[in-house]
Design goal:
The structure is a single chain. This protein is α/β, with parallel strands linked by helices. The protein has 9 helices and 12 strands. A hairpin with a 2-residue loop joins strand 4 and strand 5. The longest helix is centred in the middle third of the chain and has 18 residues. The chain binds iron/sulfur cluster and magnesium ion. GO terms for molecular function: ATP binding; ATP hydrolysis activity.
């Protein structure tokens, strides 16, 4: 709720704070139990920062985070430890997030041993079972990360995230570093594990076609702001925000008869250190009006469960 995460910008001889990068600038949304919520936007829009702030890997600058009704914004100690069990992350680069010196079995056992008193045999059985569930051979237990392909390493990362039977998984671009040919296998795996483990999934991606495949609802981010939130089908059939329209128009269409023109946005994403005043999208917006450079739009409901932040709908 009204979550902000700013990074200080230091400058000058004394490395004094000279400004802020407003990575996440006041976003509010909710995850419903059991759903997949896709958080999408270009790189640098703040979606990873949002994911890491929600999981309390980063400290929020302001705003609140609630999990199952409990305010977790500033818990610490044993309460934070308990919460970590319920909320796990899967990272973009599986190789960088796996310790190369540890056997896969130890990597996946580690969270279990950190949280529960269990016999060696019980842990091993549990981990073998997890490895099978993510589609790895049982002897993966005794191998090292470098012995696996990118897709298999991401399966190891997923097994580790599942080890504590979390309720929520935040997956930050889990397939962006993988070959296209294995992306859909890993996505399908995530989908079936979600059912089996009753997971809620916050799925972060820059690629709208990947998000569509995965999500029940979608939030579109631009320069630290949520500009549109809707059911996935509704968002694709009926995008409201000019930025969402442009993103959707850029998805390659399998049907060549579909002639809807691609909307090309002018310019680059401005710096989040000096975001444009008014609507942050106005310098690039094909539908911008004079008031767009003066007033900042708020996220408002335009239809049932469909919210958009744009003065066209004010
Ligand atoms: Fe475009 Fe104005 Fe809407 Fe911003 S508020 S998206 S500039 S029309
Ligand atoms: Mg990122």
């Amino acid at each position: 709720k009204e979550l902000k995460k700013y990074y200080p910008v230091l400058g000058g001889f004394f490395r004094k704070k000279i400004g802020d990068v407003k990575a996440v600038d006041n976003i509010s949304f909710e995850l419903k139990r059991g759903e997949t919520f896709g958080l999408v936007g270009e790189s640098g829009c703040g979606k990873s920062t949002a994911g890491r702030t929600i999981t309390r890997l980063f400290k929020p600058t302001s705003g609140k985070i609630f999990f199952e009704g409990e305010d977790i914004t500033s818990i610490y100690g044993s309460r934070l430890r308990n919460m970590r069990k319920d909320i796990q992350m899967v990272f973009q680069d599986p190789y960088a997030s796996l310790n190369p010196k540890m056997m896969v079995g130890s990597i996946v056992s580690e969270p279990i041993l950190n949280y529960r008193r269990v016999s060696e045999k019980a842990v091993r059985d549990e981990v073998m079972d997890l490895l099978t569930k993510v589609g790895l051979p049982e002897d993966a237990y005794f191998k090292y990360p470098h012995e696996f392909s990118g897709g298999q390493r991401q399966r190891i990362g997923i097994a580790r995230a599942l080890a504590l039977k979390p309720k929520l998984i935040v997956a930050d671009e889990p397939v962006s570093a993988l070959d296209v040919s294995v992306q859909s296998q890993v996505l399908n795996l995530l989908k079936s594990l979600q059912k089996e483990f009753n997971l809620t999934l916050l799925f972060i991606a820059h690629d709208l076609s990947v998000v569509k495949h995965m999500s029940d609802r979608i939030g579109v981010m631009y320069l630290g702001n949520l500009v549109e939130v809707a059911d996935a089908d509704d968002l694709y059939a009926n995008p409201k925000h000019p930025y969402t329209k442009a993103l959707i128009s850029a998805i390659p269409m399998p049907d060549p008869r579909n002639k809807s023109a691609r909307i090309i946005l002018k310019g680059d994403v401005p710096s989040p250190q000096n975001p444009p005043v008014g609507c942050a999208f106005h310098p690039r917006c094909p539908e911008a009006m004079p008031q767009c450079s003066e007033r900042k739009p708020q996220l408002k409901e335009v239809n049932r469960e469909h919210r958009v932040s744009c003065l066209l709908y004010d």
